[in-house]
Amino acid sequence: MIPLEKRAELLKIIAHPARIKILEDLTQGVKCVSDFEDSLDISQPNVSQHLTLLRTNGIIDFFVDGRLKCYFLKEPFIPDLLDLLKKEYDDDMPAPACCPVTKKGTYPGERRR
Amino acid sequence: MIPLEKRAELLKIIAHPARIKILEDLTQGVKCVSDFEDSLDISQPNVSQHLTLLRTNGIIDFFVDGRLKCYFLKEPFIPDLLDLLKKEYDDDMPAPACCPVTKKGTYPGERRR
DNA sequence: TAAATACATGCAAATATTATTATATTTTAA
DNA sequence: TTAAAATATAATAATATTTGCATGTATTTA
Lengths: 113, 113
Fold this sequence. Notes:
alpha+beta; 12% strand; DNA-binding
């Protein structure tokens, strides 16, 4: 199984609005850099930096078509994650009635804030 | 649907090895702070900080049992995400044969590094 | 072959995150 | 009522991330 540290790293790389948008765009198919410039409304160098980060971490890749770089999704985990992020959850998980060990305690606890 | 910014935030909050471990421990049931101190091998204040971050963002909650604080999972997205992170993917996604727009280009492209 | 297009890189500034240390609060037990 | 246990908070220091900007390179077109 993929080790804890790597799982954290993977999520961290994805956990940025620009990069999530990039990945979502890529689930629709191949895009080149200027496509993201339009859809993200950030500067070209900034787009390039996000793409480089995603690529050097093996999440996306590209091929060259003349002066275009055509980026595509490589990491199969991504579509599943993006789907999960779109899933609607109606309710919070149920709070345990009491502490399973001491069989005591009350919820909700008193909070200072 | 949960907006882009929020999705990024959510992932960012989870994307830390200590916090992923905390959440995994919590899928097994209620735990108090000192349990994490043992299982994570980080300082008590640091555990507390991670727990506070998770709680103030609605991902976990606690109830009070004497001088223990019993933490539990609240955000239903978490178990699904943790499962997904454990899933094995055998192969990378297939690279497109050519640019769907220009019908040209070669993969892999030339890389500088 | 000069200009334009598409993209990448390096670096510095701004900001955010993390761990650490010290201290405070709450509760139970003696 | 005092001490200790369990946890939280605050301040700080160390790092990491993010962005902006200037510049650099490759490719195509005129």
